[in-house]
Specification:
Blueprint: H1 3-14, H2 23-33, H3 40-50, E1 70-71, E2 76-78, E3 82-84, E4 89-90, E5 95-98, E6 105-107, E7 112-113, E8 118-122, E9 127-129, E10 134-135, E11 140-144, E12 148-150, E13 155-156, E14 161-163, E15 166-167, E16 180-181, E17 186-188, E18 193-194, E19 199-200, E20 205-206, E21 211-212, E22 217-218, E23 226-229, E24 234-238
Parallel strand pairs: 1-4, 2-5, 3-6, 4-7, 5-8, 6-9, 7-10, 8-11, 9-12, 10-13, 11-14, 12-17, 13-18, 14-19, 17-20, 18-21, 19-22, 21-23
Antiparallel strand pairs: 15-16, 23-24
Helix pairs in contact: 2-3
Length: 251
């Protein structure tokens, strides 16, 4: 099949650009997703299902076709204790990795991890992500010594970095040769929203329903329902101060 024929079949299966997948595409996706799984053959079946699926965020729907979820063939999993709930979505180029003495990584039901995200554990650290939470493109969650605990329904935007450890900076020796330390677990509680490019450091708790603005560097706990911004992040208002429509202050 040449490129022109392939493009024609794709348009037919999709029902036209920007529309929902057509009948052929839906049958194709369901057929292959019923054969999907974490092994090499199952991941190849996932890739075949994705061939006619909508790209990027809409591709998450593939994970709902089987309780086994969707693990893309291009996702890299190098971890001895990955625990997956039902309908989990792992996008292309997701990296899940374990270094020496790394603890488990647990993803609850309907967790979505998008392209180029990295989840890494080592030195007893572990990662736990609650049901319905999502990690977007380029996120980094690295748990060493202490865990990273993400609640349910948490939205973590692209290029967010969350580290449960700090690096030593004592004088008299190189940075590279110093050991890492950790204050306490990182806890992102239910329904919080972490904006694009934010950084959350060791020992921080982001309270339930809190909002961390894009680019913020969080060095202290965030109260439930607070909105924080800046470097270092500070409370700029609370969600209770906003109107129910439009998010503006009441006049």
């Amino acid at each position: 099949m040449d490129d022109k024929q392939d493009a024609t079949l794709f348009r037919i299966s999709q029902g036209g650009a920007g529309s929902k997948p057509g009948r052929f595409a839906r049958r194709w996706m369901r057929f292959w997703m019923q054969r999907s799984g974490p092994g090499p053959a199952g991941r190849l079946a996932s890739r075949l299902a994705a061939w006619v699926a909508p790209p990027h965020l809409d591709q998450v729907s593939l994970a709902y076709l089987t309780p086994r979820g969707y693990i893309d063939a291009a996702a890299i999993i190098y971890h001895s204790d990955l625990r997956l709930g039902q309908h989990v979505y792992l996008a292309p180029r997701v990296l899940i990795v374990e270094t020496a003495d790394g603890g488990p990584i647990s993803l609850g039901d309907k967790v979505a991890v998008h392209r180029d995200a990295i989840l890494e554990t080592g030195r007893g650290g572990y990662i736990q992500i609650g049901a319905g939470s999502s990690l977007h493109t380029g996120c980094q969650l690295k748990a060493y010594i202490e865990p990273i605990l993400v609640g349910e329904g948490v939205m973590i935007a692209g290029n967010v970095a969350i580290y449960s450890y700090d690096h030593g900076m004592a004088p008299g020796q190189t940075i590279r040769s110093q050991t890492i330390t950790a204050k306490a677990p990182v806890s992102i509680q239910n329904d919080a929203w972490i904006g694009t490019g934010a950084i959350v450091l060791s020992g921080i708790t982001v309270g339930e329903g809190a909002v961390v603005a894009a680019g913020a560097i969080v060095t202290r706990d965030v109260p439930a329902g607070a909105i924080v911004a800046g470097n270092p992040a500070r409370v700029i208002r609370h969600r209770d101060d906003l109107t129910q429509t439009g998010g503006e202050d009441e006049q």
